[in-house]
Each structure stands twice: as structure tokens, then as C-alpha cells.
């Protein structure tokens, strides 16, 4: 089966695998914390995977329903709007409420967990703006 073996072969190596932040870099303890093989292999609770993928599953269900009701153009238009809203971001050290995404998803009138306990002034992770921007741009 030539098709199966061709997909396993890799013709090129991406720049990130060779760069300092790629494959050969050691584990960054300050950014990622301590590692545990058990945490990487198994979820800590049976519902953890379902909870992680909740928004993705809900979006897929909504897109399928929208496609059945209005046709293929409606979910495609909504996905393009989602992509456009995700591209517009603040600097990494500034807090963003992502109000446009909440409006597109219909969560703008709902009060959730993240609305109460997502106060940036109480955040455990406060970074230096220059380092955070360099990390986002891939300079570190």
C-alpha cells in the first residue's frame, strides 16, 4: 500500500523542530511546571476529557443543526466569523473578555464560572510584558 507508507514518511523538517524552542529544548519548568508521565497518559477523572471538549462538541452539534436547517452556507459563514474574531486579540499581557466570541456563541447574556472567577487582578500568573510578547512572537 503505497498510500499508507507515503503518509508515514516525512519529506521535510519544520523550522520549529530545529529551533531553540523546538524538539531539542529542555522542559521549561517556570512556564509548564513539573512533569509527570501519569498526567500525560491518563486523565485524572473520567469526565475530564468530556469537559475539555465540551465547547468543541457543542459547536459541532450547533453547526450540524444549522446545516440541516439552513444549508451549508450558514455554518461556513459562522465559522469564518469565529476565525476572524479569534485573530483579533489584545497583547498577551492584557486581559481580554472575548466579548465578540461570546456574542457569536450566544453566551453574552449568561453568567458562567469564568465570569466570576476570571479576575485578572487575582491571577496567579503575572508575567513581564516584554518577555510575554517575545514568547508569543517566537523570539524566545
TrEMBL record:
Chaperone is among the record's keywords: yes
Pfam families named in the record: UMP1
GO biological process, one term: proteasome assembly
InterPro entries: Ump1 (IPR008012)
GO CC terms, sorted: cytoplasm; nucleus
Family of this protein: Belongs to the POMP/UMP1 family.
Name of the protein in its database record: POMP protein
Species name: Leptocoma aspasia
Record gene name: Pomp
Amino acid at each position: 500500500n503505497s498510500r499508507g507508507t507515503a503518509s508515514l514518511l516525512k519529506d521535510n523538517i519544520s523550522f520549529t523542530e530545529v529551533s531553540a524552542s523546538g524538539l531539542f529544548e529542555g522542559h521549561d519548568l517556570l512556564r509548564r511546571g513539573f512533569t509527570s508521565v501519569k498526567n500525560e497518559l491518563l486523565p485524572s477523572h473520567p469526565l475530564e476529557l468530556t469537559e475539555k471538549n465540551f465547547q468543541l462538541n457543542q459547536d459541532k452539534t450547533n453547526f450540524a443543526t444549522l446545516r440541516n436547517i439552513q444549508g451549508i452556507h450558514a455554518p461556513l459563514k459562522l465559522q469564518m466569523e469565529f476565525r476572524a474574531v479569534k485573530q483579533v486579540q489584545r497583547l498577551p499581557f492584557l486581559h481580554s473578555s472575548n466579548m465578540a466570541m461570546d456574542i457569536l456563541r450566544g453566551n453574552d447574556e449568561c453568567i458562567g464560572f469564568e465570569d466570576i472567577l476570571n479576575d485578572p487582578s487575582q491571577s496567579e500568573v503575572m508575567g513581564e510584558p516584554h518577555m510575554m510578547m517575545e514568547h508569543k512572537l517566537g523570539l524566545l
